Amino acid sequence: MPATESNEQQPYAVVAGVSMRDLLASCAAANAISTPPRLPDPEVSASPARHREAA
User: Fold this and answer.
1) CA 50 → CA 27, 46, 47, 53, 54, distances in Å?
2) 50 versus 41: which is more confidently predicted?
3) Mean pLDDT within 35-52
4) Sequential DSSP letters for the chain
């Protein structure tokens, strides 16, 4: 079988030069950027903490 026929049978593109570590890091960075910040908890922000007077 010639080399050209074996290349045509691959159903996916081969990307050279990108390590799995770099790929995972880029996915984590994209997820962090695209995720909106969390809303504050209503229990924490509902009332400020009251401190008792010293004796």
Assistant:
1) 43, 12, 9, 9, 12
2) 41
3) 74
4) --HHHHHHT-SS----S--HHHHHHHHHHHHHHHSPPPPPPHHHHHSPPP-PPP-
pLDDT at residue 45 is higher than 80:
no
pLDDT of 40 over the 70 cut: yes
Q: What is the pTM of this model?
A: 0.41
Place of tokens 């990307």: 15
Nearest to 27 by CA among 38, 37, 35: 35
What would you report as the CA-atom Rg of the chain, rounded to the nearest whole angstrom?
27
